[in-house]
Amino acid sequence: MPVEIALLELFSNLESLPEIAAGFGETVRRSATPERAAGEAEIFSGAEALNAVAADWRAIEREGGLSTPFQSFAVAEAAMPAHLAHGHEPHIIVVREHGEVRAILPLVLTSMAGNRVLRFLGDPLIQYGDVILSRADSEAHLGSALIAAGKLGADAALLRKVRSDARISPLLARRAHVSQVAEAPYVDLRRESGLPPRDARELRRYRRRLAEIGEVKLRITRGGDALDCVQAALELKRNWLSAKGFTSSVIGDPHWQLALVSLVTGHANLLACARLEVGGKLAAIEIAVTHGKRWHAFLGAISPEFAKSGPGQVQMADTIAHAREHGFSAYDLLSPADPFKRVIATGAVAVCDYALPLSLQGQVAARAFRFAPQAKSLLGKLPAPLRSAAKSLLRLP
Fold first, then answer.
1. More exposed terminus of the chain, fewer Cβ within 10 Å: N or C?
2. Fold of 3-181+352-394
3. At what angle do helices 49-62 and 73-85 cross, to 10 degrees?
4. Is the previous residue joined to 336 through a cis bond, with omega within 30 degrees of 0?
5. Does the pLDDT value for residue 83 go beyond 80?
6. How would you class 12 by CB atoms within 10 Å of its CB: exposed for 0-12, middle for 13-18, buried for 19 or more?
7. Is 191-328 in the same CATH topology as 3-181+352-394?
8. DSSP of 143-190, one letter per residue?
9. What is the pLDDT of residue 388?
10. pLDDT in the model for residue 4
11. What's the CA angle centered on 71, arms 328 and 335, to 5 degrees?
């Protein structure tokens, strides 16, 4: 697409003010409806906020109150230095009732397109967003947390990657605007499943092609042994993004990459690395975040030397077999879905980005955020230098 046409299409979508205005009345009505609240909310802000809530957070985690590993204290602890380095303001809301912690909503205050925007602590590293809840919680406790969030001086909250089964999902579905919908495919490892005949034949062909080069072997590492593997995956992914002219909020950002590495060096049991070798050489690699019986395929990369021989598909198939053999119940491919993910998956969960207005300016901003995914897609059609400049100008996430 010519540059001029792409730019015109981009700005015509971003400037759809009549459509934004059409939904303004509904936004006001949603904001005017008070949410049922329970308990008392306390806000901890700044660099020491995480330390202030550490004991309560870990207590809820021990009792099984996390929806995904991305709500773990370890991930929040790894993400905090990156947020501070980027000038984000941490605000952690704790809701108590009768002296007991019922809910923790970890947020950071950032800037986006001229607005002060609240986001989940850990975004963009975390792949699922949610609250941390005790077993004695109720939706009214979440209402108290959102009311407290409205007092932080933000124009809006952009709460991304909320699964349809997340604890905060019903509340946001009523109160916020959906700015993007995706799906996260998964493989149910508790039952045997296979590929369609055509895809199974293709996988066998890839495996034969790789075997002609050398022995095909999958290595799984954890802890300190996984550090070299994680660094190799990051290097491969950086090189691929650079070659394609793409950018990432995490890959290539030294602060967020350090956060990811710290999940190996400081929290050795959270990450696993699956490395496919062919003739002793690295062919494909996957960084996984594990949580209970779920294996989350966080980041994948392949070596250009083997790219035409399908090493990524072979690595994924062998990693799924490994996870099943070691008692995992699900292999989560995370969002967004792609054709290959859909082929191997046995199901999928909807994942939404929600925009919640918190001020008069935020009521318009929340409607405008729905165009951010479309704008980013259109930016992908521009040449790399123009894409980077336009993204910076528009302050898109």
1. N
2. Aminopeptidase (3.40.630)
3. 160
4. yes
5. yes
6. exposed
7. yes
8. HHHHHHHTTS--SEEEEEEEETTSTTHHHHHHHSEEEEEEEEEEEETT
9. 54
10. 38
11. 65
Structure tokens at 335: 């969002």
In whole angstroms, give the CA distance from residue 187 to residue 367. 35
Closest CA to 82 of 326, 330, 286, 249: 249
Contact assessment for residue 268 and residue 224, using Cβ atoms and an 8 Å cutoff = yes
Q: pLDDT-based confidence at 9, cuts 50/70/90?
A: very low
Question: Pairing mode, if any, of strands 216-222 and 271-278?
Answer: antiparallel
Among 127, 149, 148, which residue's Cα sits nearest to residue 289? 127
Ramachandran sector of residue 337 (left: φ over 0; alpha: ψ -120 to 50; beta: rest)? beta
What does the pLDDT look like over 61-79, one tens digit per residue?
999 889 899 999 999 999 9
Residue 328, phi-psi category: left (phi > 0), alpha (psi -120 to 50), beta (remainder): beta
- At 232-264, the pLDDT tens digits run 999 999 999 998 888 899 999 999 999 999 999
Residue 391 and residue 384: Cα distance in Å, rounded? 11
Given a cut of 90, whether residue 22 has pLDDT beyond it is: no
* Residues 130, 169: Cα–Cα separation, whole Å: 8
Angle ∠(159,164,169) on CA atoms, nearest 5: 50
pLDDT digit string, tens, across residues 121-135: 999 999 999 999 987
In this structure, which topology does domain 191-328 adopt according to CATH? Answer: Aminopeptidase (3.40.630)
State mean pLDDT over 95-106: 93
Delimit the domains of the chain by residue range. 3-181+352-394, 191-328
Which residues, 6+ apart, have CB-to-CB distance to 140 below 8 Å? 36, 37, 38, 39
Find how far residue 235's CA is from the centre of its chain.
20
d(CA 144, CA 28): 20
In this structure, the dihedral spanned by the alpha carbons of residues 91, 359, 376 and 295, taken in order and rounded to 10 degrees, is: 40
Task: With a cut of 50, say whether residue 295 has pLDDT above it.
Answer: yes
Q: Return the ∠ at Cα 291 (arms to 285 and 293), rounded to 5°.
A: 95
Which pLDDT does position 2 carry in this prediction? 43
182 contact partners, CB below 8 Å, separation of at least 6: 335, 336, 337, 350, 351, 352
Give the residue among 105, 137, 135 at the shortest CA–CA distance from 39: 137
pTM: 0.85
More confident residue, 385 or 201: 201
> Taken in order 157, 66, 74, 347, is the CA torsion positive or negative?
negative
pLDDT of res. 299: 96
